[in-house]
Amino acid sequence: MRLSPRNTEEPDVNLTPMIDVVFLLLLFFMVSTSFIRESSLKVDLPEATGQALVEQDKAIDIVINADGQFVVDTITLDKPSNEQLAKVLKKAV
To answer: Cα angle at 32 between 29 and 36, to 5 degrees?
Structure first.
């Protein structure tokens, strides 16, 4: 009596768990490693001197309403002429 040969497959090795363990070990060693600071380089930082503060430009608020009314900072002008507007702007600056 002759038996038929079985279909035998070659067992293959599943590498996924091993790769997972390797990555976990790598992560563990990266996190647990103490990072050493190089303290051999000393830098002398310059100290601040008593310089005068630089004045910054003043912002001017200009609002034009739908009625043609101009508001420059707190000054309200009803339909001003160009000369009036220039005078108020020079005063605001």
So the answer is: 105
DSSP string, 18-48: HHHHHHHHHHHHHHHSPPPP--S----PPPP
Average pLDDT along the chain, 93 residues, taken 10 residues at a time: 70 90 94 73 81 77 88 85 87 80
Residue showing tokens 């630089």: 54
| Cα–Cα distance, 19 to 27 (Å, whole number) | 12
Closest by alpha carbon to 84, among 70, 74, 63? 70
Q: 59 to each of 28, 64, 73, 76, 89, how far by Cα in Å?
A: 55, 16, 9, 17, 12
Q: How far apart are CA 54 and CA 76, in angstroms?
A: 31
How many of the other CB atoms lie within 10 Å of CB of 80?
Answer: 17
* pTM of the shown model: 0.37
